[in-house]
Every structure is written in C-alpha cells, then in structure tokens.
Amino acid sequence: xxxxxxxxxxxxxxxxxxxxxxxxxxxxxxxxxxxxxxxxxxxxxxxxxxxxxxxxxxxxxxxxxxxxxxxxxxxxxxxxxxxxxxxxxxxxxxxxxxxxxxxxxxxxxxxxxxxxxxxxxxxxxxxxxxxxxxxxxxxxxxxxxxxxxxxxxxxxxxxxxxxxxxxxxxxxxxxxxxxxxxxxxxxxxxxxxxxxxxxxxxxxxxxxxxxxxxxxxxxxxxxxxxxxxxxxxxxxxxxxxxxxxxxxxxxxxxxxxxxxxxxxxxxxxxxxxxxxxxxxxxxxxxxxxxxxxxxxxxxxxxxxxxxxxxxxxxxxxxxxxxxxxxxxxxxxxxxxxxxxxxxxxxxxxxxxxxxxxxxxxxxxxxxxxxxxxxxxxxxxx
Length: 381
Description:
Blueprint: H1 36-50, H2 57-83, E1 84-87, E2 91-97, E3 100-106, E4 109-112, E5 118-124, E6 128-132, E7 143-145, E8 151-162, H3 165-170, H4 175-192, H5 196-202, H6 204-222, E9 226-237, H7 243-312, H8 314-330, H9 354-363
Antiparallel strand pairs: 1-4, 2-3, 2-5, 6-8, 7-8, 8-9
Organism: Consotaella salsifontis
Function: HflC and HflK could encode or regulate a protease.
Membrane topology: Single-pass membrane protein
C-alpha cells in the first residue's frame, strides 16, 4: 500500500508523517526538555550577538561590557598573582617600596604587597658551599706557589650563608662570584707565606682559620652581607707532573722519622740502663756508708765501755787487755814461749811433749787460762 493512502494522508496533505502522523512537539511526561540542536542553535545566536559587529545595537553594548569585564578580571588575577607571595622555610623576604628596601624582613609564610608599587625578593638563609680547585676537571684555580717555592694543588671549600639580606641584594652584583674570587686570593696569600709541609699535613687547620679571617674581613669591607662559617681544605697535593718526585721526598722524610725514632728508642734504653746502674751504685754506697758508720759507732761504744771499766780497775783491765791481745796474736803461731824462772833455771821438763802440744794446738783452739797468767806457757818446774 502506498504511503499516500495511509490514514491522515502524507506530510503535505494532513501534516501527518509516513505512518499517518504529523511532526509532534514535546510529549507530555518527558520533562519538556529542549532538543540538543535547539540548544546549540540558541548558544550560537547569543555568541553572535555578544561579539562586536553582531546584529543589533543592544548586542554591541553587551559585547563591549563583557570584554571589559573579562579584561578587568584578567588584570585582577595578574595583580593578585603579583601581590601575594610565599616565603619558604629556608628563605627570608625583602619587601621594597618604590625600589627602596624596608627594614622588616618577611619570615616564612604567606604575605601580601601592593604591587606594582611594592615588590619583594627572597634570599636563601641556609648554609651554602663553594668548591675551589678540582683536579678531576683540570681546574687550575687550585695551583698555588708556597713560601719555599713549591707548587701545590689545593682543593678547598667555602661554607657560607647570608648574614644581611639587604646588603646581599643591593651592595654586590654577584656575591657568590665575589666570594669565590676573594677566597681564592686569600688562600694564595696564606699559602705563599707558608712552607709546603704546612699545607700538606703540618698546619692545615691554622691555614684554614687564617684564610677564613681574611675572607670575612674583605667581605665586611665590601658590605656583601655574607658570613663565612668555615674553610675546609679537602686535599693538598703536588701537581701530577711532579707527583713522583714529591712521593720520593715523602718516603725519605718517613725514613728519616723512622731512624730518629729508633735512635731515640736506643737512647732511652741506654739511658735507662745507665740510670739503673747509677741508682744501684748509689744504693751500694749508701749501704756501705751505713755499715761503716754503724761499725765505727759500735767500736766507739765498745772503746767507751772498756774505758769506763779501765777507769774503775786499771790494773785488772790492763792485764785482761794484754792477755786477750797476746792470745789473739799467739793463737796462730807455731812457737812455744816459756817464761824463765826467777832462779835462772831452764824451767823446762825434759819429758814434756812439746811437739804433741804444738800439733794439738793446731787441731784444737787454744784455751785461754787467765788464772795462772799464761797462754800456752810453761811456768817454773
């Protein structure tokens, strides 16, 4: 069946569709939502009316107002972006009014300035480091001439931080570069007054402190706003071209030190032995002195006691001393002494065994007979 014969006719006759119905509007129950094409068409119309040169005088006025609003909003965003700033924890801010720095420093946090009449610069406050002299990169800034005309390659670092942010920003154009040049110049000055051994090992700490003082004084004169915390000498060595010769010298010096130590050790050993012998001789002399003194004192006391006894009984004491002395003298003699008698006789018994008495006296100690007044002596008859 042809479409024209459907109920309601065709699109042209009865306004119906191909199924006998015409185009229908929004149906009840679908929320009266507009068509997507309608929405797009309305947006395009509004945009054409808002743009300059659009249809209608009212459209031109609305477009100009919108452009002005957008420009003001953009300027406001730029102004806020430049007026609000943040200072990090390791920084301080220096605000400037018409280019002149303020006295107050901005601490870490969020701050606000009236840009563009006020601006701000941030300065780091943490400790920084500058390395001078690097043999790996063939940097010749560390080559220096020592006081004893030796070339030495010194590698050192400068540890510093900002002490005065305003001076740091406005007094010196390049504070870090200036610090590097001043530190290098000060190190050359100090090394040029010292022997090379002081740089190698003897007095590195003294050299570093002297360089730090010179650098700090120079920075203070320029008002750089920097404080040098320390100078660290990381390495000091001869140039590679003469390193072997310096190594030979170092080995010779080490041998010299070893020989000196061995000589000192031998000297201490010999000196200790000599001191021990001397102490031993002194002790022996002191002992001998004490013994002799004590013996002398004993003899003196014995003599005094004998003298006292002699004063009491001179004859008896004299006779006793005589007999004791003769006993001591004649006890080791092989002679027999016989006291003659008063009648002039021999006083010797013919059968007296004198030889046996002499032998007996040699084998046995002679006994002292103080009663008859004789020692191994034969009296009369």
